[in-house]
Design a protein that fits this description.
By secondary structure, the chain is an alpha+beta fold. About 40% of the residues lie in helices and about 20% in strands. The protein is built from 11 helices and 12 strands. The chain has helices spanning about 5-10, 35-60, 80-95, 120-130, 145-175, 175-180, 185-190, 210-230, 245-255, 275-280, 350-360, and strands at about 65, 100-105, 135-140, 240, 260-265, 270-275, 290-295, 305-310, 315-320, 325-330, 335-345, 345-350. The strands form 3 sheets. Strands 1-2-3-5-6-9-12 form a 7-stranded mixed β-sheet. Strands 4-8-7 form a 3-stranded antiparallel β-sheet, with no helix packed on it. The two termini are about 25 Å apart.
Length: about 375
């Protein structure tokens, strides 16, 4: 069974409420204006791609990373952007979405084409692309994941402890009030709250006010629910494929039959997961919540995104040295000015064994 055969079988198991592969993708129109925040995010993404590109080519003895993804320095509002954007949409409908980087075995690397084939028409390089062993989609995130993980762990521990303390206080000091037939179900709820079950606890907070003690009990239930809600909040950073990209990545895999991977670059580490594994995860609805969640991302134009728990993925860079950053002034038409941040340099130290495991290769 080929790589594409395997992922095609997986797509048949994905609920149509998540991704409906029977429906054509919706073609989008060019945005009319870019913001400083958008350009900074683009610069950060370009830096992350360059970071992984350099790390592979400076570390590997047997493989070469080549720039492949469709990109341009033009932004919305500049002359030529609309043509670039519409050409990009045409290509998505023809071959799917190019990953940012391709990985070639050195014996298959074409030195004449070089390390950047991103601006070459897809018709001219189809057979060459099919020789690659992996396509890498590089995403960036403006977090230090170690610091985030430590703070989230402390947050969860603190509010879990507080919730258990409040539960015990209610059972010890207010159980007589809860013996009333219309209140007795709260005793069962409270007895069911522990470290293992707290993420599944749900109840409607009571609002009793007829006596001072009932008002105290109501306040305790309010505080209990607030602490439980904090424990139940998502406490992990994620790899974030957009739902709208799933179809165009699938189309690229269908066109070239080359395994595809997502890498998420933080400012201290990097993690990766295969596209095949992403499809597999979203067929297993029982893993939603622990392994991934599907939600609209306010930071990404409210697009529906699969947020995959990095703890369930492979760490492919165990250390990243932060880049240098500079403020840039960009003058647009009619004298409109945009100021944004550019990034350069920095180093990624690859976890070779985990990278080999993820890419299913024996050497590197």
């Amino acid at each position: 069974m080929t790589y594409f055969d395997k992922i095609r079988e997986l797509t048949k198991l994905i609920p149509t409420t998540v991704v409906d592969f029977s429906q054509e993708r919706e073609r989008t129109s060019p945005p009319t204006q870019a913001s400083s925040n958008f350009i900074t995010n683009k610069e950060q993404g370009d830096w992350a791609e360059d970071l992984i590109f350099r790390a592979i080519n400076e570390t590997s003895k047997n493989y070469v990373a080549v720039r492949y993804g469709k990109s341009d320095d033009l932004i919305a509002g500049e002359v030529g952007f609309d043509k670039f954007y519409n050409d990009f949409q045409d290509e998505l409908d023809t071959i799917g979405k190019r990953p940012d980087l391709l990985l070639f075995a050195k014996e298959d690397f074409n030195y004449e084409l070089g390390y950047d084939i991103s601006k070459i028409d897809h018709n001219e390089i189809t057979e060459y692309v099919k020789k690659s062993i992996a396509g890498l989609e590089i995403r960036s995130s403006a977090f230090l994941i170690d610091k985030y993980e430590n703070e989230m762990q402390n947050r969860t521990t603190t509010h879990l402890s507080k919730a258990i303390e409040i539960r015990d206080k209610i059972l010890a000091e207010y159980s007589d009030l809860l013996e009333h037939p219309k209140k007795k179900h709260f005793i069962e709820i409270l007895n069911g709250i522990n470290e293992e079950t707290i993420n599944a606890v749900s109840f409607r907070r009571p609002s009793w006010n007829s006596t001072d003690k009932l008002q105290e009990l109501t306040a305790l239930f309010k505080e209990l629910k607030e602490n439980i809600s904090i424990v139940q909040k998502r406490d992990y950073l994620s790899i974030t494929p957009k739902i709208e990209d799933i179809k165009v990545v699938y189309k690229w895999a269908k066109t070239f039959n080359v395994p595809h991977y997502y890498f998420q670059v933080f400012f201290d580490k990097s993690y990766g997961i295969s596209f095949e594994n992403i499809l597999s995860l979203i067929t297993e609805t029982e893993k939603e919540g622990e392994y991934y969640e599907i939600s609209k991302d306010i930071k990404n134009q409210n697009k529906t995104t699969i947020k995959i728990n990095t703890r369930k993925t492979e760490q492919i860079a165990y250390k990243i040295e932060e880049p240098e950053h500079n403020s840039v002034r960009r003058e647009m038409e009619r004298g409109r000015l945009l100021f944004y941040v550019s990034f350069e340099k920095g180093t990624a130290y690859l976890d070779i064994e985990k990278l080999k495991s993820l890419l299913n290769i024996e050497d590197f």
